[in-house]
C-alpha cells in the first residue's frame, strides 16, 4: 500500500471482524468489511472479496500473502470479473500446484 500511495494509486483494504483495527485497514484510502472472524467467512470467500472490489470500483486486486494469493479459482474469478489479479497468472498457479509440471517447466 505504501508503494501504491507513493505512486498516487488509491488503495482499498478488505478486512474481517477480527481485523477491523489492523494496520492495512488504517493505511488504506478505503476499507471494506468482508465477513466474520473465521477466514472461511472472509478472506477465503472469493465472492465477498470480489464484491468488495466491485463496490469500491477497484481496477485490480493484490491478494496479499497466503489466503488467495496462489488460488487459481480466485485468479480466474478476477479475470472473469474484469479485475486485474496482481500475482501469478492462472497457468503459473496451475504449474505451481503440480510438482511434475513445475519440474518440467524448469528443465
Which features would summarize this protein structure in a list?
about 110 residues, alpha/beta, Rossmann fold, two-stranded parallel ribbon, 6 helices
What about the largest sheet?
A: 2 strands, parallel
Number of helices: 6
Distance between the termini: 36 Å
How many domains, as an integer? 1
Mean pLDDT over the residues: 90
Q: What is the strand tally?
A: 4
Structural class: alpha/beta
- Cα gyration radius (Å): 15 Å
Q: What does the oligomeric state look like here?
A: single chain
Q: Tell the overall outline.
A: globular
CATH architecture: 3-Layer(aba) Sandwich
Uncertain segments of ≥5 residues (pLDDT<50)? none
Can you describe what's shown?
- It is a single chain.
- It contains six helices and four strands, in the order H-E-H-E-H-E-H-E-H-H.
- The chain is globular, with a radius of gyration of 15 Å.
- The protein has one domain (2-106): Rossmann fold.
- Helix 2 (23-27) links the parallel strand 1 and strand 2 (30-35).
- It is of the alpha/beta class.
- Helix 4 packs antiparallel against helix 5.
- The protein has helices at residues 2-6, 23-27, 46-56, 72-81, 90-96, 99-106; strands spanning 12-16, 30-35, 60-61, 84-85.
- It is 43% helix and 14% strand.
- It starts with a helix and ends with a helix.
